[in-house]
Amino acid sequence: MFQEAIYHQPLGAYGYAIGSNRAKITLRSKKGDLKAVSMLHEDRFDAPGSHGTLQLTLAGSDEMFDYWQGTVESETKRVRYRFLLDDGVNRLWYAEGGFATVGERAGWFHLPYLNLADLFTVPDWVEGAVVYQIFPDRFRNGNKDNDPDGVLPWGGTPTPSTFFGGDLAGIIEKLPYLSDLGVNLLYLTPVFFSPSTHKYDTIDYLAIDPQFGDLETMKELVDEAHKRGMRVMLDAVFNHCGMLFPPFQDVLARGQESEYADWFHIKSFPVDTQAINYETFATGVASMPKFRTEHPAVREYLLRVAEYWVKDIGIDGWRLDVADEVDHAFWREFRSVVRAANPEALIVGEAWHASTEWLNGDQWDSVMNYLFRDACIDFFAKGDIDVEGFDQRLTRVRMMYKEQATKAMFNLLDSHDTERFLTTCGEREELLRLAVTFQMSYMGIPEIYYGTEVGMVGLTDPDCRRCMIWDEQEQNRELYQWFRRMISIRKEHRALRVGSFRSVIVDALANVYGFVRETDEEGVLVVLNRSRFAQSVSWPDGVSGGVDLLSGAR
Amino acid sequence: MFQEAIYHQPLGAYGYAIGSNRAKITLRSKKGDLKAVSMLHEDRFDAPGSHGTLQLTLAGSDEMFDYWQGTVESETKRVRYRFLLDDGVNRLWYAEGGFATVGERAGWFHLPYLNLADLFTVPDWVEGAVVYQIFPDRFRNGNKDNDPDGVLPWGGTPTPSTFFGGDLAGIIEKLPYLSDLGVNLLYLTPVFFSPSTHKYDTIDYLAIDPQFGDLETMKELVDEAHKRGMRVMLDAVFNHCGMLFPPFQDVLARGQESEYADWFHIKSFPVDTQAINYETFATGVASMPKFRTEHPAVREYLLRVAEYWVKDIGIDGWRLDVADEVDHAFWREFRSVVRAANPEALIVGEAWHASTEWLNGDQWDSVMNYLFRDACIDFFAKGDIDVEGFDQRLTRVRMMYKEQATKAMFNLLDSHDTERFLTTCGEREELLRLAVTFQMSYMGIPEIYYGTEVGMVGLTDPDCRRCMIWDEQEQNRELYQWFRRMISIRKEHRALRVGSFRSVIVDALANVYGFVRETDEEGVLVVLNRSRFAQSVSWPDGVSGGVDLLSGAR
C-alpha cells in the first residue's frame, strides 16, 4: 500500500457537512492502489445507535490519485471515524494517528459537531441558472441620449478607451432576446459611475454611470428581468477604487490631514500619482488605488454598498472583482451582510487559480471557474490533452471544492478578460459546439459571454470586447440555435443540472468522452466525440437505451 | 521521485503569513526522497524586483514524511511561487498545475495578497508564559466562611460530587507560593455560579460561585496576580449551560412560549429532563443542555459574557470548554470581541485531537495540547515509543499548526480530565523530571496541573482532583525544586522560549534525545537520557561547548 500517497483531513473539501446531519467524506489514494475503502464511524460519546460502517466509492481519478467518497449520516451530529483501506493484499486502518493494523492504534478523525452556522448553503435557484455575462458598453445602445462624448459607431474596433454607447436601456430592450436564448442570470460587469469604458475604476459606488442610465433604469432592468424569471448580478470592485473616488481625492488634496488617509495603503505623504507612492491594483496602476479593507471605516463603507444594491435595488448577487486580494475576514462579513439582506443572494469571486480557501462556506459561494476554461481550451479548442487528460483535469478541479461550490461554479469558456473561445478554437465552430454541449451538461452554472452564442470572435482584451452583433445576417444563427437547444435540454432534464457525475467512456484512441448525470428519477448519458471521425461506442456498464435527446429517437 | 507523496497547498499550516510582508511555506515529501527543495517566487503582476529564489531547509521528519520550510519575503505582499524538487536524479517543478519538467507548465501556487486583517497574531507575552492550572475547589481554602454545606475535611477522597472548600481567597493567599515556583499564568477551571464541584454546568455566567467568593474577590485575585506579574485566565463553557441556567428553566416552565425556546436544541415540547428530549453535552447529560450558538440572541449573550470578564474584570484570556463542538462562526466573532476588549487577551480551546481548523488565526490562539501529552506519555512515562518515534510525533504535531499557534500551545502533561502524569509514570519520579525538563525547554507554553510539582498522584477524574498538598512534610520538595529550577532556566534563556527547534541527537540505541533551541544571540542544547543507564554522547554537528546550565561548569 502506498501509504504516503493517502490523504484525508476532516476539513476543507475532504470532510464537511452537506446537511444538518450529513457529512461528505473524501479520501485520496495513489491511483490504482486501493481496491476498497470503508469507514467505521460513531458518536465520540458513544451515543447508542451511532455506530455504523460506510463503503466509500471511487468518485473519480486524476493523473496521480483516486478519490473515494461517501456520505455519513449522524443523528447526534457528532462524527468520529477511521478508514479501513484494502489494496487487495493488505488491510490497514487509517486515521489521525496514522496507519495501523489494529483500529484503536490509528485513532480517529473528528468532525466534532456539525453546526448549522457553519453549513455551506447556496441558494436553491442556483440549480437552474444559466449565466449571460454582459459588458454594458458593448451590448446594446438602447438610449442615444445618454451616449458619452466621442462615442464611436456601433461595430467599430475597440481600444482600451473607446466608448460605443451600450447601456441599461439596451439590456432591457434585449431581454426578449435573452429570454429566447434561455439564459436566466445576467451578470453585468461594472455599471457604477466611473471614467473608463470598463468601469473597474469606480468614482461612486452608489450611482449608476450616466452613460448607462440611472438608478431608475437599473430598477427597471431588475424588475423587468425578474418578471421574465431572470436574475441580475452586478460586479463589485472592493479591492480598489478609481482615482477620482472622492475619499482618495480628499487624500490627494489634504494628505495626512484627510479623514480618509487610512483608507488606502499610502507609503508616504504627500500622495503623488506620478511617483505612485501608494498601493494600487496590480503594479503601479495609478488610477486604481487599493483599499485598506482592514480599516473599519472602509469595511463599513463597502459593506453598506454591498447591502444597498441587494436590499434597496433588488439585485440577486455579486460578482467580486480581484476578490482573492481582499481579506478573508472582509468576505466573511460581506457574506453575512449580503445574506441578511437577501438570503437568496449569490456570491461569486474572481480568482483564476485554485480557490479552496474562499469556498468553505463562510466567504463566497462560487468562483469564475477559469480552471474549467483551461481544461476546455486544452481539450476542445487546442487538442493539447486527450480525453483521459481532460477527465483527470475535471476530476481534479471538482475535488478541490465542496460539492456546494461545485454546484455553483461559474463554468465559463470565455470572458471580458480572455480571448473568445471560438478564436481559441481557430474558428472551428464544431469545437465550440462540442464545448458548449459539455458546458451545458456538466456540474455547475454554465456562463455565456455575450456574443459567443452568435459566433463572435476576438483576441484578448480589448478585442474580446467588440460590440454585440445584432444584425441577424451577421449572426451565426445556427450556432445560436445550438446554444438555445443545449440550454433547453439542460432545463428539461434535472439530472443535467443537479445529478451526480460519473465519467463512463474515456476512450483515448477514439477520443470520445462519455459521462452520466443521474438523479433518482433519471439518468442522462452525454457522449462527446472530439475526434475528426465518426466513432461508434458501446453502451457503458449500467447504461441502457433511452431517448436520444438530439433526434428524439428511442 | 515519489510524486504522490508530495503535498503543498497555499493555505493552513502549509502557506501563511507570519508578518505583513512575510509568509512561511512548508512542503511535505516522502521521507528520504528529496535532496533539495527550492522555490521560485514573484509578484503575479510582475512588479519590478519581486522575483526571487529561496532554498527551503529540512525542518523535521515524522514516520513517513520530510517537511521542508522556508520564509518568503514580498514587498508587494503578493506571492506566486513554484517549487523545484531535486531527488538527486531528477529535477521537477511542482505547483498548482502539478509536476512538470518545464516550470511554466507546473503553473503557480498563489498567496494573492498578505492582508493584515488575516494575519494570525498572538500576544507577545505568550513568549514568557508558564501556566499553572487550578481546580479551585481543591487548591486552597482561604475563607472558611464561604464553604458550601457538607464540605469535607481537606485531603479526603474526592468523588464526582464532594466539596472541599477551596476558593479564590485561597488562591490569593498562595500567590507567593506560585510566584516562588515561577509560574505566571493562572488558568482556573470554572468559577461561575453552578451547583457542581467542577462548575461546568453554569447557572450564572456573570457571577462568581459563592463558595469561591464574589466579584470583589475575583477582582482582588486579578489585581494581586497582576501586581506579581502574573496573568489570570478563566474557563468559559459556551457549548452548554447548566440545567439551572434561568433561560433553560424558563423553557422547562413555559415550553414553546418561552422567549428562550430557540436557545437550545429542543426536539419536542414540553421539555422533559427525564426523557432528555433536548441535546446536551456528550450523550444524555440532562444537567448540561447544549446551546444553539447559531441563534443570534445566544451569540449576543455569550459574547457579552466573554467581553465582560475581559473588559470589566480584567482577566487575561479564556480557556474554552468543549470548544470544538461550538461553531467556527461563533469563535470568529468571539475572537473579534475579546481582542477588541483586550488586544493582549489569549484564547485557548479545548480539543483533544488535531485542531488545525481552529488555529488559522481567525478563531483560537492555542489549544490544550493533548497530542503533546500523548507523545510524552508514550515516550517518557510508558516507554512505548523510542526516541525516534518521539521525535516523529513531535514533528507531526508541530507541522499541523502555524508557527504562531505552536508558540502558544498549552503543553500539558496532565489536567483535571486525565490521570496524573506521575501515576502514569508508575510513580517513577525520574521520568516525570525528564518530562518536565522537556516540557520547560520545548516550543510552546508549559502548563503545570496544580500539585504535580509536589508529587501528587491520582487516577483519572475524580481521583486526579485531590486536594492540594500544602504540608511541606508531605510535599515532594526535591521535585518542587526541580520544577522551580527548570522554570527558572527557561526564563533565563530566551532561546528556550522563542528559539528555533532542531533535533540533533536521536539515538534509539542509547535512547537519548537531544535538541537545540536557538536565537540569533544564543543556543541551548538539551539532552535527555530516557534509558536506565548513564550514556555518553558526542557533540552534535554545529554545536560546541558552553556552560552546563545544571552544574554551571563550562
3D structure, described in words:
The structure is a homodimer of 554-residue chains. Chain A is an alpha/beta fold and 554 residues long. Helices cover 25% and strands 21% of the residues of chain A. Chain A has helices at residues 103-106, 168-173, 175-181, 215-227, 246-254, 296-311, 328-341, 370-381, 387-400, 403-408, 421-424, 429-441, 477-492, 494-498, and strands at 15-17, 22-30, 36-42, 52-55, 57-61, 65-73, 79-86, 91-95, 98-100, 109-111, 131-134, 185-188, 192-193, 204-208, 231-236, 317-320, 346-349, 366-367, 410-412, 445-449, 500-507, 512-518, 523-529. In chain A, the strands form 5 sheets. In chain A, strands 18-17-16-15-12-11-20-19 form an 8-stranded parallel β-sheet. In chain A, strands 3, 4, 7, 8, 9 and 10 form a 6-stranded antiparallel β-sheet that branches. A 4-stranded antiparallel β-sheet of chain A has the order 1-2-6-5. In chain A, a hairpin with a 4-residue loop joins strand 7 (79-86) and strand 8. The longest helix of chain A has 16 residues, at 296-311. Chain A is globular and about 75 Å long. The two termini of chain A are 46 Å apart. In chain A, 50% of the residues are buried. The mean pLDDT of chain A is 97. At the A-B interface, helix 7 of A face helix 7 of B.
Give a quick rundown of the structure.
Chain A is built from 14 helices and 23 strands. In chain A, α6 runs parallel beside α7 and α12 (429-441) packs parallel to α13 (477-492). Chain A is 25% helix and 21% strand.
Strand content of chain A: 15-25%
For the CA atoms, what is the radius of gyration of chain A? 25 Å
Which ranges of chain A are low-confidence, i.e. pLDDT below 50, for 5 or more consecutive residues?
none
> Which secondary-structure class do the elements of chain A indicate?
alpha/beta
Terminal Cα separation of chain A, in Å?
46 Å
Number of extended strands of chain A: 23
Largest sheet of chain A: 8 strands, parallel
Indicate the multimeric state.
homodimer
Largest interface: A-B, 51 and 52 residues
Helix fraction bin of chain A: 25-40%
